[in-house]
C-alpha cells in the first residue's frame, strides 16, 4: 500500500500478535496464552486465563515459542516458510537426515507455523560498549552456533519510474514527497546475528562477509557449498542452512 511521506524514514516499532505462546521464565515458571511481542522494547504482553495481561521483559524470559501469527505486511515473504527443518539441524546434503525435498514457498501465509525465540545479552550494535542488555532473538538454525534474527518495520520509497506504479501518474503528486517519489511502503527488515556457544551475539551487518569471517577456517568450503546449492546469504531460510552446514564442518558428528 502506498502512503504519504512518514515523519521520519527508517525503523518503526514492530508489534507482532500471536494466537498462542509458551513462555519459559528465568525463574523456571511457564506462562501460556495469546501474546504480543514488542520488539523495540523487548517486552512480551501475555493474555492470562483470568483476562488480565501480564507484561514480561526479556530480563525475565529464558525462551518462548509462538503460533498463529496474525498479521504481516503483504510483501513480507518469510511468513510463507517454516524453519522447523533448519532449527533441527537440516541442510542440503546432510546425510544424517536422508533426502528431503527443497522446501517450496507456500501459496499463502502459514498461520500455524511455530516460531522460537531466545534471550541473549546484546550491546545493541554498539561495538564500543561493554554494556549488554537482554534482548529477544528468533532462532532460525541449530547450534552450536545459532543463526538469530531480529525484525523491524521500515518505510521504503517507491520511485515514480517503477513500472508497477505507472498508473499512479494519473494522480497529482504529493507535495511533501521528494521529487520522483510516488509514496512509501512498509516492509519488514531482517537483521541477522550469530549466537555463539558462550552466549555472545555476533552482528552480521553484511551476512556473507561477516559469516565467512566468523567461520574463517571453513570459509572456502562454506562459500562453495552456498554456490553449489544456490543459497543466498541474504535470505533467512537459505542462511539458516548455510550456518547448519558451517557448524557441521566445525563440529563434525562422531
Structure explained in plain terms:
Helix content is 15%, strand content 35%. The protein contains 4 helices and 11 strands. Strands 1, 2, 3, 4, 5, 6, 7, 8, 9, 10 and 11 form an 11-stranded antiparallel β-sheet that branches. Strand 2 (15-25) and strand 3 (30-38) form a beta hairpin. The longest helix is centred in the last third of the chain and has 15 residues, at 236-250. Mean pLDDT is 81; it is low at 1-11 and 164-175.
Short synopsis of the structure:
With 254 residues, the protein is an alpha+beta fold. The chain has helices spanning 84-87, 207-214, 219-228, 236-250; strands spanning 11-12, 15-25, 30-38, 43-47, 53-57, 61-69, 114-122, 133-139, 146-159, 181-195, 201-204.
Cα shape: globular
Helices, by number, come to 4
- So what's the oligomer here? single chain
Provide the succession of SSEs.
EEEEEEHEEEEEHHH
Estimate percent helicity.
10-25%
Distance between the ends: 52 Å
Mean pLDDT: 81
Strand composition percent? 35-45%
Largest sheet: 11 strands, antiparallel
Low-confidence stretches: 1-11, 164-175
Q: Would you report the number of β strands?
A: 11
- Look at the helices and sheets and give the structural class: alpha+beta
**What is the gyration radius calculated from CA atoms?**
20 Å
Amino acid at each position: 500500500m502506498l502512503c504519504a511521506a512518514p515523519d521520519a524514514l527508517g525503523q518503526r516499532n514492530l508489534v507482532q500478535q500471536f494466537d498462542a505462546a509458551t513462555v519459559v521464565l528465568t525463574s523456571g515458571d511457564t506462562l501460556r496464552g495469546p501474546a504480543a511481542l514488542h520488539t523495540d522494547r523487548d517486552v512480551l504482553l501475555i493474555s492470562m486465563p483470568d483476562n488480565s495481561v501480564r507484561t514480561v521483559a526479556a530480563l525475565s524470559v529464558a525462551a518462548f515459542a509462538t503460533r498463529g501469527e496474525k498479521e504481516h505486511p503483504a510483501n513480507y515473504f518469510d511468513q510463507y516458510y517454516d524453519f522447523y527443518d533448519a532449527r533441527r539441524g537440516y541442510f542440503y546434503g546432510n546425510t544424517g537426515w536422508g533426502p528431503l525435498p527443497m522446501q517450496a514457498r507456500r501459496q499463502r501465509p502459514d498461520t500455524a507455523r511455530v516460531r522460537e525465540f531466545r534471550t541473549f545479552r546484546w550491546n545493541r550494535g554498539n561495538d564500543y560498549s561493554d554494556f549488554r542488555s537482554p534482548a529477544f532473538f528468533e532462532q532460525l538454525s541449530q547450534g552450536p552456533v545459532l543463526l538469530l534474527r531480529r525484525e523491524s518495520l521500515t518505510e521504503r520509497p517507491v520511485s515514480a519510474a517503477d513500472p508497477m506504479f505507472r498508473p499512479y501518474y494519473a494522480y497529482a503528486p504529493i507535495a511533501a514527497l521528494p521529487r520522483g517519489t510516488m509514496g512509501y511502503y512498509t516492509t519488514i527488515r531482517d537483521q541477522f546475528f550469530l549466537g555463539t556457544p558462550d552466549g555472545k551475539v555476533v552482528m552480521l551487518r553484511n551476512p556473507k562477509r561477516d559469516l565467512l569471517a566468523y567461520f574463517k577456517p571453513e570459509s572456502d568450503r562454506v562459500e562453495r557449498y552456498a554456490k553449489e546449492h544456490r543459497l543466498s546469504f541474504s535470505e533467512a531460510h537459505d542462511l539458516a542452512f548455510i550456518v547448519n552446514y558451517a557448524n557441521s564442518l566445525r563440529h563434525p558428528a562422531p
